[in-house]
Amino acid sequence: MSLPITKVAACHIAPVFLNTNATIQKAIEWIREAHSNGAQLVCFPETFVPCYPPWTQLKAPVDNHHLFRKLCEQSIYVDGPEIMAIQSVCSELGIVVCLGFNEKSRVSVGCLWNAYVIIGEDGSIMAHHRKIMPTYCEKLVWSHGDGNGLNVCDTKIGKIGALICGENTNPLAKYALIGQGEQIHISLWPAFFTTRRPGQTVNYDLDNANRIRAGCQAFEAKSFTVVCANFFDEAAREFCKNDDPANADCYDSASQCSTMFFDPTGAQIGESLKEKEGIAYCTFDLNQIVELKQFQDLAGYYQRYDIFKLSVDRTPATPVTFLEDPATALKYPKPEKKSN
């Protein structure tokens, strides 16, 4: 048995801030560049389309209404033309893409989800996941997700799963993917996460926290792991500072998160990016997993299914379920069209 050797591209890039059409075009350009460099899997960061909303970390909700309206306006439907444009490129190039985006609801103009899709090489959506629980201040932006997207995609380049941001701290969500034989794990992240003002006690070190979480998932799952973070560019920084001058020093001092890769031992490998925009590349030889699974296999012999049982409800959440028999539906007449 020979497992795939897969070249992965992690896009450490900034969206065109709050501009969906331009961001989708930028994504397509970078997918084509990654493909030209031999990548078979291309990863984009958390809510790349149209942006991660950094203002929620610093501004009071009472001051954010105009930004929330703009975010809703620029958010997209999972079955809309923007995602279809990415699907078409995947089909054309025969490439797999994981794309983070702000998803809007067809039944509520004010409901958003932090979501991703994994699109297969034939252009089909193989996974559609909504972040289960928004983190900290994110609860003021995004609704709770569901378990529908907690699935691992079986592709010719490996078995691929993904979690968004803080979900990578949740042992149950992580094991839901481990238990499906995940071989490549993608984690999607914001550019920074501010919990303290400059000069106060030590801020939350997202970069270090991500190294711990990614290394943990890689080691426990015996999987290769991608950390794909947004890049906070000068245009986004100036937009946020102009909108909120009182917090300009926070935006100026924000520490950029890294994009990087880990092997199944938990060691960092391949290229990494932090302070500049670009694509980081790494080649995963999935055959390395076999020997490590011999040591500990949490999806196999190194598990006690008679003691531990995990049930995951993957039913998509809907606002309301209607119980009706179409055979009993009332028929209403309508007026005939008058002929001219």
Automatic annotation (TrEMBL):
<dbReference type="InterPro" id="IPR036526">
    <property type="entry name" value="C-N_Hydrolase_sf"/>
</dbReference>
<protein>
    <recommendedName>
        <fullName>CN hydrolase domain-containing protein</fullName>
    </recommendedName>
</protein>
<dbReference type="GO" id="GO:0003824">
    <property type="term" value="F:catalytic activity"/>
</dbReference>
<comment type="similarity">
    <text>Belongs to the carbon-nitrogen hydrolase superfamily. Nitrilase family.</text>
</comment>
<dbReference type="InterPro" id="IPR044149">
    <property type="entry name" value="Nitrilases_CHs"/>
</dbReference>
<dbReference type="InterPro" id="IPR003010">
    <property type="entry name" value="C-N_Hydrolase"/>
</dbReference>
<dbReference type="Pfam" id="PF00795">
    <property type="entry name" value="CN_hydrolase"/>
</dbReference>
<feature type="domain" description="CN hydrolase">
    <location>
        <begin position="6"/>
        <end position="286"/>
    </location>
</feature>
